[in-house]
Amino acid sequence: SSASPKITVIGLGYLGATHAAAMAELGFEVLGLDVVPEKIRLLEQGRAPMYEPGLDDLLGAHVAGVEGSSGRLRFTDSWAEIGDFGDVHFVCVNTPQKHGEYACDMSYVDSAMDSLAPHLTRPALVVGKSTVPVGSAERLAARIAELAPAGADAELAWNPEFLREGFAVQDTLHPDRLVAGVRSERAELLLREVYARPLAEGTPFVVTDFPTSELVKTSANSFLATKISFINAMAEVCEAAGGDVVKLAEAIGYDDRIGKKFLRAGIGFGGGCLPKDIRAFMARAGELGASEALTFLREVDSINMRRRAQMVELTRDAVGGTLLGKRVGVLGATFKPDSDDVRDSPALNVAGQLHLQGAQVTVYDPKGMANARAIFPTLGYADSALEAVRGADIVLHLTEWREFKELDPAALGEAVTRRHVLDGRNTLDPEVWRKAGWTFRALGRPTA
Ligand code: UDX
Predict the structure, then answer these.
(1) Which residue among 127, 136, 167, 297 sits deepest, i.e. has the most Cβ atoms within 10 Å of its Cβ?
(2) What residue ranges define each of the domains in the chain, with the CATH number in brackets?
(3) What are phi and psi of 396, to 5 degrees?
(4) Which stretches make up the UDP-glucose/GDP-mannose dehydrogenase C-terminal domain (predicted)?
(5) Per-residue b/e over 409-424, b at no fewer than 16 CB within 10 Å?
């Protein structure tokens, strides 16, 4: 209906593009803005600027001008148009790690707010979704109060986002919970209106203050990172003691206080969130004089980084002590399956280290090839798993795509020089590979 709030989404990456499409799916009129013209060009054709399952379909169903679409989703590069159009403005720009520092780079958030605020000429709610250091919302609220022509009618709320890449559409339409940091009842009621459908489906809604809402996000990601590093630490102990971390994870996971999820040992976590979020959290705690509270995150980070180094070492040992001239077939480049994202990817990091130590590395990934080539042009790339392992002295499984689980080890065995495989994700079945004549090794599991 014409009474429902009009939505804008600022920043159209993994988070914003998905959020914009989801808001249109929920029935709202949506206007999106990004400062990268190429992204807008793709989105206007109903195409996502990244690979995310289901997102192209959702965009196609709503982007104005796409045949048969609802027409509820449009894009612009004009801040004036954004200010004029929106009742609720979602800020979804990214906060990457600063070069050579733990802290995150707030410049995209700051400049989005500074560009938007002077155009807030009528009552509006600005909703921050980006992952930010605690205290940012308070600072940004003051900035909006200073710059917005609408004065007190322009307000800020903080509404962290918990979506996982690969499940972004599903997580956005059916979140586990919604969290809102608000300073007025009006802000809470507007958010309740925007999220009416998930709330009607029973999604818990946690309403709180600014700092708590910001901390919910960083603490959730810290907990997840800690869980992964915990099981990876157990993998190291299993290696030393001859135990099997996969069995161990299964067994402790049956205790539902522990839970089965996020206990997959392997080459560790990467991506655009967990690594930089724990570092930014440590940096911020330091500024607040609370750094001791988070020293354990330094350990979480170093356990995680050690996994990559151990994978490289395991590979070097397996090919006879030197990587010089050895052919390595690498399966996987993205930081996780069902994504094309290679930011801080453990797979690509391992491949890069092997290359630097003189190995001839050939990489294949179902969706990450273009992004991998762009940041690591010196590695070899192949168009299929079979081509990547052709002539290989050793095969590394580094991202757990379903396609790799379904590979036929016998067929692959025909292509390689030596049947030697290292599973960096603990999702291949050792029995199946060993039966096909492969020497199979995995992090944290016994050698057969
Ligand atoms: C994460 C959070 O899960 C999400 O809630 C938040 O909004 C953003 O950050 P994402 O980065 O998409 O999401 O990936 P996630 O599924 O959390 O995986 C992160 C990394 O941990 C991946 O590299 C993955 O391979 C690794 N991982 C995950 C493990 O090594 N073991 C596990 O058991 C689980």
Answers:
(1) 127
(2) 7-208 (3.40.50.720), 209-448 (3.40.50.720)
(3) -115, 130
(4) 329-430
(5) beebbebbebbbbbbb
Distance in angstroms (rounded) separating the CA atoms of residues 429 and 442: 10
* pLDDT tens per residue across span 1-33: 347 999 999 999 999 999 999 999 999 999 999
Q: What pLDDT, in 10s, does the model give residues 324-380? A: 999 999 999 999 999 999 999 999 999 999 999 999 999 999 999 999 999 999 999
Atom of ligand 1 nearest to the CA of 227: 33
pTM over 0.90: yes
ipTM of the complex model: 0.98
H helix or E strand, kind and range, residue 312: helix 295-318
Say if CB 396 and CB 422 are below 8 A apart. Answer: yes
Cβ contact 276:355 at 8 Å: no
Cα of 77 from ligand 1 centre, angstroms: 32
CA–CA separation, 25 and 40 (whole Å): 19
Could you tell me the end-to-end alpha-carbon distance of the chain, in angstroms, rounded to an integer? 65
Reading the block at residue 408, the tokens are 């036929």
From ligand 1's centre to the CA of 116, what distance in Å?
Answer: 32
User: Which atom of ligand 1 is nearest the CA belonging to 168?
Assistant: 12
Provide the pLDDT for residue 262: 98
Ligand 1 — pocket residues by CB below 6 A? 162-165, 221, 224, 228, 262-264, 266, 268-271, 273-274, 335-336
